[in-house]
Amino acid sequence: MKSEKEKMLAGELYNPLDPQLCWERDRSRDLCLLFNATRENQKEERQRLLAELFGKETDAWIQPPFFCDYGTNISLGTKVFFNFNCVVLDVTPVTISSNVLFGPSVQIYTATHPISAAERRKWLESAKPITIGSDVWVGGGAIICLGVAIGDRSVIGAGSVVTRDIPSDVIAAGNPARVIRTLPLEASEGT
What we know:
Layout: H1 4-9, H2 19-36, H3 43-54, E1 61-62, E2 66-68, E3 74-76, E4 81-82, E5 86-89, E6 94-96, E7 101-102, E8 107-109, E9 111-112, H4 117-120, E10 126-127, E11 130-132, E12 137-138, E13 143-144, E14 149-150, E15 155-156, E16 161-162, E17 170-174, E18 177-182
Parallel strand pairs: 1-4, 2-5, 3-6, 4-7, 5-8, 6-11, 7-12, 8-13, 11-14, 12-15, 13-16, 15-17
Antiparallel strand pairs: 9-10, 17-18
Helix pairs in contact: 2-3
């Protein structure tokens, strides 16, 4: 029989009140609390706390406050920037590639609840992973919903709600976000 954590990571309905999952979320909240209390001049302490939160070292630049459910389900490429007040509900994997910029108050939600009220009364939830390509810029206040993939080099407008996949090399904005412009192909660096 699968554990609640195995069900959670597989995107199946699971019990979020499972003691192991509660312990892991408490661990994440404690680390976020410590991280959020640091100052800009405490770079080594910030990097240590982020390595513990994510389960590996990172060069991410994160402006406190930052919040997440587990931390260990977040995979970061190099040179990722989170501005103030970002939230990542990483119930299933959140994969963020390199050179990605998040404006203030961006929210990334892998978690969801059943549509049926009868099902919700069982206090079960599920989730779907989120993938964000390289060189993406997500404007402030944007919400990225479960199961979404955002392609390389795309821009998500401030305040947008991303409910479906966004291809590479576009600007998407609105609620729900839709492609409003295709970006020109950039010349290679050094040419």
